[in-house]
Amino acid sequence: MTNADVTTRRTPELLGQTVVVIGGSAGIGFETARRARAEGAAVILTGRDSQRLERAASELGARYTAVFDANEPASLQSFFREVPLPIDHVMVTAGAPRYGPPLEMPPDEARRGLSEHLVLALGVARGAGGKVRPPGSLVFVGGTGARRVRPGLAIVSAATAAFPALIASLALELAPVRVNLIAAGFVDTPLSARLLGDDLAKRRDELRATLPIRRVVGPADVAALAVHLMSNTALTGATYDIDGGQQLVS
Question: Is-above-0.85 flag for pTM?
Fold first, then answer.
């Protein structure tokens, strides 16, 4: 072994730790679980689709899986009561924004759009807060796309504005467990494909032409940030944007 081999060797960032990914069967959640495994962690995956979750768990060698809807409070709390310990980090990617004219949106849908991510974050904090080993973390995924107020985006804009304030408060409530928020712009995921439909290819081309990074942000980009937030124990109570510079261009 040469001196170069010794100096370049590094310890995996999450060696010996356990990462729970709520919404871990596809997209950002799956890539975060993959990255965590590469950094030495054991992973626990949850999702709503049992077949997709089984495939993801098999590919990653997950320690444990659970099929449930994270937006059902009873199911979420039951999961945290039964999940194998110890837990070091919880990553939450479940949920989707609700777009549409606010004055035409049905009241129940508007209520879900305004509160779903926030109520889920509270539920995760309630269930996981006493089980995560300090200086472990909760990492949530939100968005940046509706920060610029525009017609038709009132519901998602309000939820986007409220999320960072809740995260900062939870960081104080759960200390020394850390709490952070990833605010993502467009990320090329199956969820984006479902939301955009036939317009997906056009949106990709627009972003490649206009973003400062000249490419589309992918799930692996967000996963790299998520694992950094888990491993860097100085980070808590903050919101971290990842959008390839999308907010810098009109």
Answer: yes
